[in-house]
Specification:
Elements (H helix, E strand, L loop, with lengths): L1 H4 L6 H10 L12 E5 L17 E5 H9 L1 H9 L14 E3 L4 E5 L5 E4 L7
Helix pairs in contact: 3-4
The structure holds zinc ion.
Zinc ion binds next to strand 2.
């Protein structure tokens, strides 16, 4: 993880908060081999504007790869807020598939359990 995590443009203090918040994969719960995943993709420009504690989550490399290469996984991740359209707000709720609970992420590196989004009820 140390190697991969340097690829994102976060301050060291924010990286520490990210690791403290996301000590397991949002998909499977593993604590090994976690990599940063941008919920809203940075796109071709690679803007660091999206390197925020609301937009970046840690997932295992396998799931990160699956979201990139498998349209079904990508759609599933979109339904659960793990992936966001570029124009969606990163304050949108995100599903911890390991805990089976929805969370709201704030800009300071906290996660708060929240209700499922209304469009899923
Ligand atoms: Zn995983």
């Amino acid at each position: 993880m140390e190697e991969a995590i340097r690829l994102i443009g976060m301050k060291n203090s924010d990286l520490k908060k990210l690791r403290d918040r996301d000590s397991w994969c949002w998909h499977c719960g593993t604590e090994q081999g976690l990599v940063p995943h941008h919920r809203a993709n940075r796109g071709a420009g690679g803007s660091k504007v999206l390197d925020t504690l609301q937009n970046v989550i840690l997932v295992c490399a396998e799931f990160n790869q699956a979201m990139e290469s498998d349209a079904n996984v990508a759609n599933w991740a979109r339904d659960l807020g793990l992936k966001l359209s570029r124009y969606a707000s990163p304050s949108a709720a995100v599903f911890d598939n390991y805990l089976k609970k929805w969370f709201y992420l704030d800009e300071k590196g906290n996660r708060f359990e929240t209700e499922p989004p209304t469009y899923l009820i």
